[in-house]
């Protein structure tokens, strides 16, 4: 029998990887914003057209890339963030898989402009469907601009699967909120079809929450602070009397990364037990800091689910910290006289 196994060409492998990393314009937003943060930007601008279907562009004032790195950044598994497997257990960056730019360039038209502080001119790369169309010198400020146009132009099935602009924009705003809340010290702005949607100045966590969700939010927040050997918690929960039937704002950040965790969410619900009216949902904005060696972020390509070494302890600490804070603000149980 003849041998039949072949290695897939890079552009095919990239397109397959893209299927996991890029579901919709919001996924591109997340990856580009995270790259800007990893590049130590202090100011990040997000520009969108047609809810990201036509354009997602992120402009940062971070460290930029050299001419060679700029080209190399589109290769699969090309990353400046880890060097060895061990580094996976002490991650300090958002990225580490070296897959995002390669994946995005496989399924969109991408234009990159970047310059490092020490360089006079920057470099400008145009790439589509993994094929580099041009790279030339360009005058551009220090930092990086990545423009992603016509997402899924070469995968009609994927493009048709995208939802209405309103729905896709909602997903983008959710990602934008998550990243902006995780990094209140960074200035973020967002523009859709030429008009400003958000302009968030550098601030602290509380102020960032208020800037995003409105000034009325301020009086609803109860601070939660707890430091133990395994976990530091800082942030806020919403006062129970403001809880609504619609799912409130619920955010966990672990080491500055937004994560979803049904288990930890349950811990919060347990802390609120007896305080919420039937069917109402607690709001929370909680920053958890743990030793990076005690979590595994590499269980899902989008990194929104992580694995904790000792979930049960975290659950117990979280529940008691939130309970304590609610108690300190002397919140009486809801008296439902209608019953
Ligand atoms: P990862 O973030 O996992 O390393 P990416 O494909 O997102 O993989 O990016 C590849 C590399 O390109 C990064 O490791 C980084 O060196 C470089 N890079 C990407 N975006 C930026 C940016 N905005 N500023 C500076 N360097 C960047
Ligand atoms: Mg990245």
Each distinct ligand? adenosine-5'-diphosphate, magnesium ion
Using only C-alpha atoms, the radius of gyration works out to 22 Å
Strand content: 25-35%
CATH architecture heading of the largest domain: 2-Layer Sandwich
Structure overview:
The strands form 3 sheets. The chain has an 8-stranded mixed beta sheet with strand order 5-4-3-6-2-1-7-8. Strands 9-10-13-11-12 form a 5-stranded mixed beta sheet, sandwiched between helices. The protein has a two-stranded antiparallel ribbon with strand order 14-15. The protein has 9 helices and 15 strands. The radius of gyration is 22 Å and the shape is globular. Helix 1 (10-21) crosses helix 4 (100-106), helix 6 packs antiparallel against helix 7 and helix 8 (262-271) runs parallel beside helix 9. The termini are far apart. Helix content is 29%, strand content 25%. It has 339 residues and is α+β, with helices and mostly antiparallel strands. Keywords: DNA damage, DNA repair, Endonuclease, Hydrolase, Nuclease. Belongs to the DNA mismatch repair MutL/HexB family.
Set out the fold topology.
Blueprint: H1 10-21, H2 25-38, E1 43-49, E2 55-60, H3 67-72, H4 100-106, E3 109-115, E4 122-128, E5 131-138, E6 143-149, H5 156-161, H6 165-182, E7 187-192, E8 195-200, H7 205-213, E9 221-227, E10 232-238, E11 250-254, E12 257-259, H8 262-271, E13 284-289, E14 295-296, E15 307-308, H9 311-328
Helix pairs in contact: 1-4, 2-6, 6-7, 8-9
Bound molecules: adenosine-5'-diphosphate and magnesium ion.
Magnesium ion binds next to helix 2.
């Amino acid at each position: 029998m003849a041998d039949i196994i072949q290695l897939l060409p890079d552009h095919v492998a990239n397109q397959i990887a893209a299927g996991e990393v890029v579901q919709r314009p919001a996924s591109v937003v997340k990856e580009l914003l995270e790259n800007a943060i990893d590049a130590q930007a202090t100011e990040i601008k997000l520009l969108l057209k047609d809810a990201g279907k036509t354009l997602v562009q992120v402009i940062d004032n971070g460290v930029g890339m050299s001419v060679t790195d700029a080209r190399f950044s589109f290769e699969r598994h090309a990353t400046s963030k880890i060097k060895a497997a061990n580094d996976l257990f002490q991650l300090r960056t958002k990225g580490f898989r070296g897959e995002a730019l390669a994946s995005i360039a496989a399924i969109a038209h991408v234009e990159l402009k970047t310059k490092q502080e020490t360089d006079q001119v920057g470099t400008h790369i145009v790439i589509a469907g993994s094929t580099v169309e041009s790279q030339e010198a360009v005058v551009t400020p220090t930092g990086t601009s990545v423009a992603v146009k016509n997402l899924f132009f070469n995968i009609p099935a994927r493009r048709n699967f995208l939802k209405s602009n309103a729905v896709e924009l909602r997903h983008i705003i959710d990602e934008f909120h998550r990243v902006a809340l995780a990094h209140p010290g960074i200035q973020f702005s967002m523009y859709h079809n030429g008009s400003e949607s958000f302009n968030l100045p550098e601030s602290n966590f509380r102020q960032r929450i208020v800037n995003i969700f409105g000034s009325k939010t301020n009086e609803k927040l109860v601070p939660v602070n707890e430091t133990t050997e395994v976990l530091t918690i800082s942030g806020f929960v919403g006062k129970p009397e403001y809880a609504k039937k619609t799912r409130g704002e619920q955010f966990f950040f672990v080491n500055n990364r937004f994560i979803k965790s049904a288990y930890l969410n349950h811990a919060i619900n347990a802390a609120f037990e007896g305080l919420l009216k039937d069917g109402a949902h607690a709001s929370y904005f909680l920053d958890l800091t743990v030793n990076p060696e005690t979590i595994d972020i590499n269980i899902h390509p989008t990194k929104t689910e992580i694995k904790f070494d000792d979930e049960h302890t975290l659950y117990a600490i979280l529940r008691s910290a939130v309970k304590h804070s609610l108690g300190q603000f002397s919140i009486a149980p809801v008296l439902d006289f209608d019953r």
